[in-house]
Structures are given as structure tokens and as C-alpha cells.
Amino acid sequence: MNKVQLVGRLTRDVELRQTTGDESIAIARFGVAVNRKKKDEADFISCVAFGKTAETLDKYFSKGSRIAIAGRIQTGSYTNKEGAKVYTTDVVVEEFDFIDTKSESTTAPAPVDDKGFMDIPDNIDEELPFT
Known about the structure:
By secondary structure, this protein is mainly β. The protein contains 2 helices and 6 strands; from the N terminus they run ββββαββα. It has helices at 51-60, 102-105, and strands at residues 4-10, 15-18, 26-35, 42-50, 66-79, 85-98. It has a 5-stranded mixed β-barrel.
């Protein structure tokens, strides 16, 4: 049985590409840092997802997002431009779950004073939407 379950943080933004041809398929590549039992150690795991899963990952996850994934290990190889054989190991994501709540994954709102107004910095270069 080839089954992997991981919980970690994305090490980079999801890279989404489309295959060429009549029926293009979305392919997402990203890395996940997974802590080991020792606090100062982590493994950096390459992941790939296809289709709707890839599109959803690209839409909702970015570098630093916490994620739980389930999938399978897939190995492969290719010959690079220098003629050397390169071996690859990826986790093919079949399922995933959000770990962060929506409030944890978004930035905090701007501070509001006691009268209900946001503090607008003096050095703002943009034109305000009112006069």
C-alpha cells in the first residue's frame, strides 16, 4: 500500500501550470515543510496535484499556509540538459484539508479609533475615494 499523510507548511507559493493539448489539465507544484520529532528538524517534501485539486490549492494556499495532505509517493527520473540522470520523489496529493482558520490565514484589519474611523497615514500617495 502506498499512502502518505502529512501536516506542515507550504515552503513556497503554489506553482500552477496547464498541460497543452485539447483537454488541458492543471498541475500544481509546491513544497511542504514537515517537522520531525526533534524541534529543530524538518523535512522538505515536494508535492504535486492535478485537476480541480491543483486549482483549489493554487486559489487558497500560499507560502506559509498550514495544510494537511494525503496522497501517494511517486518516483521518477529524467535526463537534464547536461546529460545527467536526475531522480525525483514527489507526493501526489489526492486529498487535502485546511489547518488554519480563515481568520488565521488573513491579515489583521487596520486599527480603528474610538469613533469608528481607520487611521490613514499622512504619507499616503493614493487619492482617497471621497472629498
